[in-house]
Amino acid sequence: MDKYIEIKKRFLNKFIENKFAKEFTSYKVGGKIDIIVYPENIEDLLWLFEFIKKTGIKYFICGNSTNILVSDNGFRGVFIKTERIKNIEVDGLIIRAQSGFLWDDMIRIAVNNGLDGLVKTSYIPGSVGGAVRMNAGAFGEETFDCLESVDVIDLNNLELKTFKKKDIVYGYRYVRDIENFFILSGEFRFRKSDKEELLNLRNEIIKKRIEKQPLDYPSAGSVFKRPLNNYASKLIDECGLKGLSVGGAMVSKKHCGFIINYNNATASDIYSLIKKVREIVYNKTGIELELEQVLVGEF
Predict the structure, then answer these.
(1) In this predicted structure, what is the pLDDT of residue 177?
(2) Other CB atoms closer than 10 Å to residue 219's CB: what's the count?
(3) Considering the domain 88-211 in this protein, what is its CATH number?
(4) 292 counts as catalytic
(5) CATH topology of domain 5-81
(6) Of 264, 60, 19, nearest to 155 (Cα)?
(7) For the purposes of burial, counting CB atoms within 10 Å of the CB of 294, is it exposed (0-12), middle (13-18) or buried (19 or more)?
(8) Does the model's pTM come out above 0.90?
(9) For the segment 163-217, what is each residue's pLDDT rounded down to a tens digit?
């Protein structure tokens, strides 16, 4: 019996079966996903999470697929893709954006409205939901600098809730207890500034990212979080690991904080290289690198 038959009936043309993760993740690796669902509103989400609670089917919430590594064995369950939940509203200094809205598109809109506060996070490739989930940031600015509140679905009781920033425990690339909630939207408060100056700064940031990051190869951004009073890329470089490879995966020669898929890598290649880098850095420095990317499936 098809355990996803009810999902197919409910979502009709809003699902895809047996799609390979390598077809849509930024790493371009990963096996077959049982079913990918594209909810468009709160009603879709509440129905889906109720079904998941009732059946016990595994699920994974996925934004723009830019910070995940999916196993070569794929994922036996439901991928919930947020890309159709993407409304945005500008109201003076406030921007309200739903979880599936692309982060860089929100920053572009902010800049075009002369709104400052997160311009240095330009060109981060994920979604608003993903940025809130991990407090994404760059060049000294991070999501929670401007975040005012988050609307969520409590996955324990399927209630809609709003959390103010003051009620959330967060830090560098860290938001506590977010796993029990589906992020619906975020509200951000910006500062008014000169539009032309912001546009120039945004262009400079984008230029820096293009110059310094290996964007010509598939990757999922920074592999490891920044250690206290140090940098993962600096440690990896000092340990002589630039260009280290396993199969088709390589520590980028352009930026050691990235692992790139340079030659038809598998997820296992990337995962093995991650483990190898962590082991060597720990043995040489005593510092244990913490993974920033999310592993999906069995490794």
Answers:
(1) 78
(2) 26
(3) 3.30.465.10
(4) yes
(5) 3.30.43
(6) 60
(7) middle
(8) yes
(9) 999 999 999 888 987 878 999 999 999 999 999 999 999 999 999 999 999 999 9
Distances in Å between the alpha carbon of 61 and those of 6, 15, 79, 82, 235? Answer: 19, 14, 6, 8, 32
Burial class for 42, CB neighbours closer than 10 Å (0-12, 13-18, 19+): middle
- Residue 252 near residue 258 (C-beta atoms within 8 A): yes
Q: Which CATH architecture has domain 215-287?
A: Alpha-Beta Complex (3.90)
Closest alpha carbon to 276 in 230, 232, 245, 237: 245
Per-residue model confidence (pLDDT) at position 91:
98
Q: Look at residue 231 in the predicted model and tell me its pLDDT.
A: 94
Is the separation of the CB atoms in 290 and 232 below 8 Å?
Answer: no
Q: Which of 173, 189, 204, 272 is catalytic?
A: 173
The 10s digit of each residue's pLDDT in 94-142 is 999 999 999 999 999 999 999 999 999 999 999 999 999 999 999 999 9
Catalytic status, residue 173:
yes
Percent above pLDDT 90 for the chain: 96
Q: Where exactly are the structural domains of the chain?
A: 5-81, 88-211, 215-287
Tell me which of 222, 233, 252, 278 is the catalytic residue. Answer: 222
